[in-house]
Specification:
The complex is a heterodimer.
Chain A: H1 9-29, H2 31-50, H3 54-64, H4 68-93, H5 107-123, H6 127-136, H7 140-166, H8 174-178, H9 180-206, E1 215-216, H10 218-221
Chain B: E1 3-7, H1 15-24, E2 32-37, H2 40-53, E3 56-63, E4 66-72
Parallel strand pairs in B: 1-2
Antiparallel strand pairs in B: 2-4, 3-4
The chains are: A mainly alpha, B alpha+beta.
């Protein structure tokens, strides 16, 4: 079969230059804007290279007993817990209001999660991975992304109807409830437990089959 | 020993791996299954799945964004 692999390094250089130009332009209006821009691009590269997918973290685990993404997601959550705890504790020490999106959780959260989960599996990805796949050039995701935009818009329009019915409670903030050390301990203990359960469930299925497959060049190409 | 081809171009997860599993379950040990996909996540899924079953595999990017994964079924596939 003839190789039709075209080098894309030219496009890479052009896009990199455009990204840098926009970044420097943004830096003139606000340093934070430029930081957001470069951080967003870096995050995109990581999601692209790692083929990360929130939907896959659940889908692959339950469907194929493949826990690679599930473990990655637990690590992401643990890392963000550390980061957010540091930022929030800093604000707490200074007596400032606690930053972060603290919303009340309830059955509405679970119902919404189920709806969103069904949508993710049908369309093939979560919000961030849809964006990443769209960026990779998978055109199907233009439809997914349009749907995501329409859904969010509709949600915004009738949010005021649901708010007094469903989300009119005080949010639970673990550190305020248990104190900082206990809250962090509980959170990390839960992460550890879930990681262990996921790992052992996957190992069970591996030991059923012969282990240690060999392959050529897959590591560098993927 | 025979070589089989599975075209899952345009399919998104989890369909490609489900089709691969289904096809592999009907192959005999020694057969080779070539899966062609343009979905990057699928390549990872199939690598993980092959690794778990101890199948040998090889990946080739035959065109920008299109991958062929060659899987050697070296034992009776238990499915799953």
């Amino acid at each position: 079969m003839p190789m039709k692999n075209k080098s894309q390094s030219m496009f890479f250089v052009i896009m990199l230059l455009i990204a840098l130009l926009i970044g420097f332009q943004l830096a003139r209006t606000g340093r934070l804007l430029a930081l957001n821009w470069f951080f967003g691009i870096a995050l995109g590269v990581v999601i692209h290279r790692s083929r990360f997918c929130f939907a896959g973290a659940f889908r692959d685990f339950f469907l194929f007993r493949d826990a690679a993404l599930t473990r990655a997601m637990i690590l992401v959550l643990a890392t963000t817990t550390l980061g957010f705890a540091a930022i929030q504790f800093h604000a707490y020490l200074q007596g400032a209001p606690i930053p972060g999106k603290l919303y009340p959780a309830g059955l509405n959260t679970a119902a919404g999660a189920v709806l969103f989960g069904v949508g993710m599996v049908i369309t093939g990805g979560c919000a961030c991975s849809s964006l990443a796949r769209l960026g990779e050039g998978f055109l199907l995701y233009t439809i997914t992304f349009t749907g995501l935009l329409i859904g969010s818009l509709v949600g915004v329009f009738h949010y005021s109807f649901w708010k007094p019915i469903l989300v009119d409670a005080d949010p639970i903030f673990l550190p305020a409830l248990l104190g900082w050390p206990a809250a962090l301990t509980v959170q990390f203990a839960l992460f550890g437990l879930i990681y262990y359960l996921v790992q052992s469930y996957e190992q069970q299925s591996i030991s059923l089959f012969r282990r240690g497959s060999r392959c050529r060049n897959s590591f560098w190409m993927f | 020993m025979q070589e089989f081809f599975l075209d899952v171009l345009g399919e998104v997860c989890p369909t490609p791996l489900l089709k691969t599993q289904e096809k592999a379950s009907r192959l005999k040990p020694g057969d080779v299954l070539v899966v062609e996909t343009d979905f990057s996540r699928t390549v990872r899924n199939i690598i993980n799945w092959s690794g778990k079953h101890g199948f040998e595999y090889d990946i080739e990017e035959i065109e920008n964004g299109i991958w062929q994964i060659k899987i050697r079924i070296n034992q009776q596939s238990p499915g799953g």
